[in-house]
Specification:
alpha/beta; D-Maltodextrin-Binding Protein, domain 2; 375 residues
Length: 375
């Protein structure tokens, strides 16, 4: 009886210590989560109300959720700290911790920048060129360009294979390449070179400056990106002709960049979250785009009285011919040529598979919605 009582008291004492230890272990995460989060100041190249800002926020939300609140991105719109085209320099210099933009906005430093978002079309679409970045050597070449060639204190990731960007907004329907001759036109990146090669006079402008420039006569026609953004900044109020389909920017994506010193100062798991949240945002961004772009195109047609046309094949062929000339003039640069040849080889293999294997979606659409498409 005495021995049993002693053993029982020993068991209860040991159990109490173990329980206290378990409680202490369970309480540890609460202490970690109570710590102040690391805040990264990021500015985008987009207006506060633009759908691209929503997509940037989708990325920021995923970073915070995946880090359990340890890492938070303070997302600012274009102009909050610097102008839309200045976010890369501000990030490299440490004025910003990060930026959400596109490489075409800094192609003036090196035209190869445009190959990571507004490059030539060899038959591969945006999703397939984003796959090239991840699996075809693209991210290594991007790092070489940014860090080694330009010497910028930047690390960057890519997200969101953008749907083909429309040819844009015109005073009247474009029926041939000759209709575009001499037009004062807004675009960015290597698309500038392509359109100039087709006889247009091209100006590069951030999205927020497009409509004011059109109203002042600085430009006569323009493209930005998609039906939602175009409608949000009032394109339908200054033009009623919308041309859909083009080779000038048919494989673009967002560039999500960080100051390299700031990035390197983070724990490895937080670095991984910043990188792989771009992949998570990829799905969210694309889903949002499919929903909103399609809905806003219908609003442009049915509510705003916009006439929507498919860009003629002759114009697209003229764009390809212009691409050929632009590439001939630029491949003398060793790095530029390396990137182009890598994309060409990737496209030859990947697009062959996809084009040979893909269902004829237009045939199916016409079968179930006959007469709906304007081409």
């Amino acid at each position: 009886m005495t021995k049993q009582s002693l053993n029982r008291r020993k068991f209860l004492k040991t159990g109490a210590v173990a329980t206290a230890g378990a409680a202490s272990t369970l309480a540890a995460p609460a202490v970690v989560s109570a710590q102040s989060p690391i805040v990264l100041k990021m500015q985008s190249s987009w207006g506060a109300s633009d759908i691209f800002q929503e997509m940037a926020q989708q990325y920021a939300d995923r970073v915070e959720a995946m880090s359990g609140g340890r890492l938070k991105i303070e997302l600012l719109p274009a102009g909050a700290v610097v102008q839309a085209f200045q976010v890369q320099d501000a990030t490299a210099d440490g004025i910003l911790d990060g930026a959400h933009s596109v490489t075409a906005y800094w192609y003036g430093k090196n035209k190869a920048a445009s190959l990571f978002g507004t490059g030539p079309v060899f038959g591969a679409n945006a999703s397939q060129i984003l796959a090239w970045i991840h699996y075809g050597g693209g991210k290594e070449m991007y790092k070489e360009l940014v860090q080694d060639i330009l010497g910028l204190n930047i690390v960057g990731f890519f997200a969101m294979p953008m749907p083909t960007q429309p040819l844009g907004w015109f005073k009247e329907e474009v029926t041939s390449a000759e209709d575009m001759q001499g037009l004062k036109y807004r675009t960015v990146g290597l698309a500038t070179d392509i359109m100039q090669g087709m006889g247009l006079s091209v100006t590069q402008l951030p999205g927020g400056e497009i409509v004011p420039a059109l109203e002042r006569g600085v430009i006569e026609a323009f493209e930005f990106n998609n039906p939602t953004s175009d409608r949000q900044f009032g394109a339908q109020d200054v033009s009623k002709t919308y041309m859909m389909g083009s080779y000038h920017q048919a494989a673009e994506f967002f560039e999500i960049m960080f100051n390299k010193d700031r990035f390197d100062s983070l724990d490895p798991d937080l670095q991984a979250i910043l990188e792989h949240s771009a992949e998570a945002a990829n799905t969210a961004n694309y889903g949002l785009a499919m929903d909103r772009y399609s809905a806003d195109l219908q609003k442009l047609i049915n509510q705003d009285g916009v006439n929507v046309y498919r860009t003629p094949q002759s114009v697209m062929q003229a764009q390809l011919d212009s691409w050929d000339e632009v590439l001939d003039n630029l491949v003398s640069d060793e790095f530029f040529n390396k990137v182009v040849e890598s994309q060409r080889a990737w496209s030859e293999r990947v697009a062959f598979y996809d084009l040979l294997n893909s269902a004829d979606y237009k045939l199916a659409y016409d079968h179930y919605f006959p007469g709906k498409l304007p081409f």
